[in-house]
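Re: the 509-residue chain
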Amino acid sequence: MRINQIIIVIALFVSTQCYAQETFTSKLIDSKTEQPVVFATIQFNSKSGVISNDNGEFNITIKRAIKETDSLVISCLGYEEKRIGLLNFNAPTIYLTSKTVDLSEVLVTNKNYTIDEILDKIKDGLTVNYDFSYSKRKLFFRASHYIDMQKRDVDIENSTIPEINQFFIDSLIATIPKKVDNHTEILGELYGEIAAEKQQKIDILKSCRLFDESMEVDLSNYEKRFNDIFKKHIKRDSYFKIKSGWFSTKQDIDPSIFGEEQENDFTDGGILDEQKKQDSIRKIGFLHYRKLMIHQFENNNFIDEDNDLNFIHKSRRYEFEIADYAYINDMFVYVITFKPKRSEDYAGTMYVNTEDFAVVRVDYKNIKPLSKFSLLGISKKEYLKEGTIIFQKNDNEKYTLKYKDETSGVIFGVKRPLKIVEKNKNVSGRRKQNEVKGDVHFIARNIDKTELIVFETESISESDFKNFKEKSLVTPVDLAKYDPEFWKGYNIIEPNKALKEFKAIGIEE
């Protein structure tokens, strides 16, 4: 064989090894109940693993050629660990078998503690069991926002401006979408001290935003239609008196309606220009905003004393019970349920390592509205907050966040009379020129679902953190429909059904 042929063969072999990768997809099912197994850990090695989603689904990409000895290790609280070979993988469904734990197994290395003794040891371990030091966390973050307009009524009682009638208002309201959702996904590396309120830096490796541009309210259309009407009926030197119930405010006429200023002046250009300004700020500040959001989300848990998940720090306000024992990731755990004695908000289950008394998982849900406000026809109710938090040990033998999923829900309502009066003090006779009077009734339900998986946590020094330079001007790729190819070759959280079915209006298959 000639030397050039040898070089070609070597080059082909090296390129094959460099680019060989394979993605494995499956769904985890309980062998007895046939229900999905959620939040299971699917591990390829100590540096590569994912979590099954809320439908038991996962996919994991191995970025090298598969060997005969390669396998996935699947572990989940309350189930037998399962090992699946990858060489001839063909398993659209994987069944897991529940595992029972004998109390005598737990007590081999531990005494029979009372629930109060366990709680005291959990509190003592909060400052030593968890890692708050400088680290680099490779992660995937997904934030989904859903809006459901349950009521959007404006009833015109009286109008002295013929064009502003019930038909006109109904036509405007019809352009407001009843249901809207958008999703942001980020794959990146977060640098800094894990502790809350500490400065962070982020390297966003890839990001996308799924949203339907046609579902966004077109304020430019509203502004043009109203301006055309105002030019016809409103005097240049008038002002508006806006009254709702007991409250009233004065609003000067925007002179740009009559062409006296440029329409695109950010300094004082009306609603449309303010929207453009906010959109511009949002694009420039994408990295900074999402970095803060991710860091706050990873620290929003039971460790911080000031957090509303206060069932450990304020344990006297809760009732606890050792409900069971379980086995997960080579450790025995207490399964401890909690619920409020009086006025606290959450109930749930925590899983505590029997050796070091670290809380390795918490499932929680509010049992009553977290807050309610209603005054003079304006209302807000935080009716939902539920989630799961999972920790795992890192190379320092301390615990860091592995996975967090949280869903929160808020209902907003407005039911008030509204009167807009044009007044002018420079005309003879009565100052009142025009009036529009009616009733407004809006109800909106907002749901936010946020997920975070940390693939690996690597300790770094303070100087490593200071020397890392952010690429601040980062913007996500905008997608009008879910694209399974976008994250091909990357390990992420498998999307749920709503995200997979996302598609902007007008997008053809």
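Residues 1-19, 262-269 have pLDDT under 50 and may be disordered.
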